[in-house]
Here is the input.
Amino acid sequence: MQSLAVLIALLTAVDAVADWTCVWFGWRRTHYVTKPLVMVGLMVLVGLVSDGEPAAWWLIVALFFGMLGDISMIGASTR
Here is the structure.
């Protein structure tokens, strides 16, 4: 379980760097994929490292709504 969490953390970090690169170079289509994947990776990571603690579930819910906000802001920023 710990090695899976490390793998998810590394993949999320690589995806975050890819997302920042997309923003820097203005690659909008790729940014539509990389930004939500960062949030999904963080949600999965929190789910893996927590032992079902209530605070972890609230954090996952907050990350989910943060992802929805990010998606809506991506659409607004490219118009």
About this structure: The mean pLDDT is 90. The longest helix spans residues 2-25. The chain is about 90% helix and 0% strand.
